[in-house]
Amino acid sequence: MRNLINKITIIGFSIFSLITFACSSSDEVPYTLAKNYFVKNNYPDRNLHMLKITNDEKFNSVFGTAPVMGEKGKPTEIDFSKNFVIALIDDTSNVSAGVSVKSLVMENGTLRLTYDLERKNNPDTAYFRHFTILIVDKKYESPVYANIAPQNGYPLTGGDLDDSGCKPSTGYSWSILENDCIQPWDTKYVFEGEINNAPLIFSKDHNQAEIMRNAKFPDNLILTKKPKSKVNTWIKGDLMLIQIKKDSFVLKEKNRAIGIGKPRK
Fold first, then answer.
1. Within 13 Å and on the Cβ side, how many CA atoms surround 135?
2. HSE on the CB side for 188, CA within 13 Å?
């Protein structure tokens, strides 16, 4: 009986240890730094931001290749069928000396990147746009959040970034239709109901509607207006947004109402 109790105790302790380890541990994620690329001139000049890129089309819209002489001068190969990219891009500056990565870890299903900004004491006469590109195995693909490394042992306010290039700590989130980081509480419309407080945005021509990410939908959704419909209707898969009054909309999922969009009060 005593042996049985001891075995149960050992098993219970082992399970508790595994659970504690799984909950508290963070694992280093391997990556490769891509070389011999440049940020294209037509890419908007923005303050330091981060992008998660999962396909060639998006990557090629931001970066071009800058090969130099010799075998080592070729751009680092990126196979998006096996990898994805995390890019940190700074704004054009004459005081920036580069963007460096301190660590990349997986923590509770989220990639956490720690970075540092290198600054020059004396400004250059020329202006540069510094960046760094991480190539990561697709098996680690997850939401990415970045924080600047602590300065003198203290965290720096506003040094956080999400993988859309916005700063969550300042209340900003990415809007596809606005093509910018916005504060969700500034949108004209908001939902009530199952997706309470989810912002609703329309394109200028009202041909598209955007539901910004929320507790139910982890990614922003774009619904397209149904042509030649008697009632203004926007659809995406099983979702249907119907205008029921001038400034009132109902969102249905498989014909079940899950939210009412109204002007903010």
1. 17
2. 10
Give per-residue pLDDT as tens, 139-179. Answer: 999 989 999 888 666 556 667 888 888 888 888 899 999 98
Q: What's the Rg (C-alpha) of the chain?
A: 24
Residue 86, both tokens: 């995390």
The amino acid occupying position 231 is V
* Among 73, 65, 17, residue whose Cα is nearest residue 40: 65
* Helices vs strands, H then E, count in the chain: 2, 21
Distance CA 10, CA 4 (A): 10
User: Model pTM?
Assistant: 0.69
Burial class (CB within 10 angstroms; exposed 0-12, middle 13-18, buried 19+) of 106: middle
Stretch 127-135: mean pLDDT = 94
The rounded distance, in Å, linking the Cα atoms of 244 and 242 is 6
* Nearest in space to 251 (alpha carbons), one of 224, 212, 206, 211: 211
Give dist(CA 249, CA 259) in Å, integer: 8
Handedness of CA 73, 33, 64, 115 (dihedral sign): negative
Instruction: Tell me the pLDDT tens digit for each residue of 28-85.
Output: 999 999 999 999 999 988 888 999 999 999 999 999 998 776 667 799 999 999 999 9
